[in-house]
Amino acid sequence: RAVGDLDFFGMRYPEEVGGNEQDVVTYCLAVEELARGSLSVAAACTMQSLMGTYFLYRSGDPGILEEFFRPALAGERVGTICFTEPGAGSDLSAIATTAKRVGEEWVITGDKTWITSAPVADFFTVWAKTSEKELAPFLVPRETRGLTVGRSIGKMGVRASVTSDVFFEECRVPARFLLVDPGSGRKVLEEILEKIRLMTGALAVGAGQGALEAALSYAAERVQFGKPIQAFQAVKLRLADIRANSA
């Protein structure tokens, strides 16, 4: 919620929908600073500010914007995207989750894994196949019958950014919760993947800067043989390598 008060979640969206419309460089600098302090916080916040809300914005549906999108920009609701599956990552053709139109509803069935913020999410943007060749994102609120969030996945790092599996068993959502026309689903997904790659680079740079600052602080405090270890050439060389790699 505190990050929402800083207007971070709205940096890439226009003012008329509650954002503050910053350019991509400014956004990436903000991402770097978040990651510099905590990669976990940065991971959760970038999910909320981009992947977890982007397709709601693209839908343009007034009801969706008011009920889900604007509260998410304010940090009042948590959103995430469900793309990765046990057998599908970047390979779009391998997605097995399906969405079938039944009357005025879509019925979604499938399993997703490694979903950032899933244990605390209020809504999910779920990618599913609507036909053999077409993909589309759907808005699925957490309270939807048939939606089950699995246990948090244990990780070696970034543990404060919670992650879990999400299962969809004949989840029914209104027809208007189709966020992008299936015919343009792949193209729109590729657009957001380009932004995600830039954001991921910013996360890495920020985390590297934070690691360097922590290492410099420790090297100045830790004393061996009567002087701080930062005075030893071997330590200086390692710190220089970190600085070069995080520049």
Automatic annotation (TrEMBL):
* Domain Acyl-CoA dehydrogenase/oxidase C-terminal stretches: 183-245
Q: Which cofactor names does the annotation list?
A: FAD
What range(s) does the Acyl-CoA dehydrogenase/oxidase N-terminal domain occupy? 2-76
Q: Pfam families attached here?
A: Acyl-CoA_dh_1, Acyl-CoA_dh_M, Acyl-CoA_dh_N
Q: Which residues form the Acyl-CoA oxidase/dehydrogenase middle domain?
A: 81-171
- Molecular function as annotated in GO: acyl-CoA dehydrogenase activity; flavin adenine dinucleotide binding
Describe the family membership recorded for this protein in Swiss-Prot or TrEMBL. Belongs to the acyl-CoA dehydrogenase family.
The molecule here is called: Acyl-CoA dehydrogenase
This protein's species is: marine sediment metagenome
